[in-house]
Amino acid sequence: MNVIHIDSGILGEHSVSRRLTAAIVSQIKADRPDAKVTYRDLVSERLQHLTGAQIMAPADLGEVDPALASDIRAGRQMLDEFLAADTIVVGAPMYNFSIPSQLKAWIDRLAVAGKTFRYTEAGPEGLAKGKKVIVASTRGGHYSAGPASAMDHQESYLRTVFGFFGITDVEFVRAEGLNLGADQKQFAIAEAEKTIAEGNVLRLAS
In which residues is FMN bound (predicted)? Predict the structure, then answer.
């Protein structure tokens, strides 16, 4: 079993999403000791944001500027890791109603025609079927229900883009209201960790 563990929270040891992804991966390892985990910290090993030079670069990078070639190779390696994975654990805090730009840069390297999707006469087809994605979703306020749900471009985007890749098994471990006071923060974290410990989002991953 191949697992990719992705963190994108910028708060380091204070990041709740990092705390939750670590708990999810620990639970997976407890259930499946044979699981191979590849870890990517998108903050410390940051990819460049997508550019025209990257898109237009030839398959053979021998004549490409060395810095650009290195970045393209890193993106290709992350795509290969994604394609080889059975389960993808993603830490995704909500920043300004969406995902961190570091996480978007990673997703942009996965969205490659002929690799994770293709266009057909019947419409787009995802090519990364059969995988499970578990997202540790953290938010300062409450966006899962009520009027504020219209401002959620974090979970809705992730479900859409992974669905576009053909992945329909996308689960969210959610900690909301983290900025609404210390008691609410601790309650939200405890509830998320309880969900992880009970294995509610891990059954299909194990």
Answer: 15-17, 94-97, 138-141
